[in-house]
Amino acid sequence: MGVRAVAGDVVTAGVAGYAGTKVMEPVSRALYKAESPETQAKEDAVRPGPPYQLAAEKIAKAVGLNLSDKAVERAGMGFHYGLAISWAPLYGVLRRRAHLGGPLAAVVTGAAMSAVADEALTPLLGFSAPNRFYPLATHGRGVAAHLVFGAAVGVVSEGVWALTGRRPTNRGAGRWRGQQQQGRSSSTRQSVGQASVTSRDRKLQ
Question: Long-range contacts: 168-176, Cβ < 8 Å, 24+?
């Protein structure tokens, strides 16, 4: 891939990551509202605040900045969308380098973000309470929302690639189909050869 192609994929990933976040947010809110009042109360009791705002506040303090509440909120939203946009290129890597099909690449993108960013780094860095304090439904909602994120990233990326004529092909599947066709051709040639030998033998008898 040339520089122009890479730059195009970076821009596509940015758009896809932003769109994926916009799709994920209402899904996550809807899943939260569907939880029982007891589950919501347990989650709210241990939740120290929006993780992205806590991240922005901790980072600001680490570099010596004293931000107002409004500035922390804006920085938190920037962190929230920035993480999603920086994660979205994984979909393109899985499609172009690992040669995964679109649906599988979308699942891996969303699941990896859920496992690494949400379940591992967020509590490890102190942006949330430890995982064991949250109800199981909270973790399930996070996984589901991030799978939706991966699906949205996939749909947007594939759409842009289709419009620009840069949609990747599944080379792994192509090689498999080629091997299958080659195997069938070889079997056909062997069958024809055996039939010819049998025919000659019969003529000699």
Answer: 168/95, 168/96, 168/99, 170/99, 170/100, 170/101, 171/99, 172/99, 172/100, 173/99, 173/101
CA 11 to chain centre: 16
- Residue 98 CB partners (closer than 8 Å, separation 6+): 105
The residue ranges of every structural domain in the chain are 3-169, 171-205
Please give the full DSSP string across 30-54, using - where no structure is assigned. HHHHHS-HHHHHHHHHH--S-HHHH
pLDDT, mean of each 10-residue run, the chain (205 residues)? 88 97 97 97 95 93 90 94 97 97 98 98 95 97 98 98 89 49 56 53 51
A 10 A CB-CB count for 81 gives: 16
